[in-house]
Specification:
Length: about 160
């Protein structure tokens, strides 16, 4: 009597393994097919708006102006005048950030962080580094002092401006 139980257990194990292998194979193929490439500079239109308040911020909008979806990445790397890099927040992570054609995401940069005497600089450009490696430089006449990016890309301007 113990033999049928062993055969049944081995059969169940074999069937379970076959199902798992089939599932893993299907999952990997689907993931590779579903991968959306990182956004390139030619696909993105970047605009900035200065928002004044208790802490002045630069609101960056990145809009997909191409006909194809692209992955904007988790966070944009911001540099002023090609030399003053905005500090990035610690502990950021997440999955892809897919922008469909016409969609925008927003990132806010606090312009003054420390108010160190003599460190305030008036800038003329802002460069946005995309996660795929491309960069976009646009005019941005702002005053900075140890700027920092508030959060990863957000789906609305309000969310970007409300994060610290």
């Amino acid at each position: 009597m113990s033999t049928p139980r062993v055969v049944t257990s081995l059969t169940a194990l074999a069937l379970g393994s076959a199902a798992l292998v089939g599932f893993v194979g299907t999952s990997s193929a689907s993931a590779a097919e579903a991968r959306v490439p990182y956004c390139q500079a030619s696909q993105i239109k970047v605009t900035t708006t200065t928002v004044t308040g208790p802490s002045d911020r630069l609101l960056i909008a990145a809009q997909n102006v191409s006909g194809k979806p692209c992955d904007l990445g988790i966070i944009g790397d911001v540099t002023f005048d090609g030399k003053i890099r905005a500090e990035l927040p610690d502990g950021i992570g997440g999955g892809p950030n897919i922008l469909r054609p016409g969609d925008s995401n927003y990132e806010a940069v606090t312009l003054a962080h420390r108010y160190t005497p003599g460190s305030i600089v008036r800038t003329g450009t802002v460069t946005l580094g995309l996660e795929g490696g491309d960069t976009i430089t646009i005019p941005a006449a702002v005053t900075v002092d140890s700027p920092f990016v508030n959060s990863p890309w957000q789906d609305t301007a309000e969310h970007a401006l409300s994060t610290h």
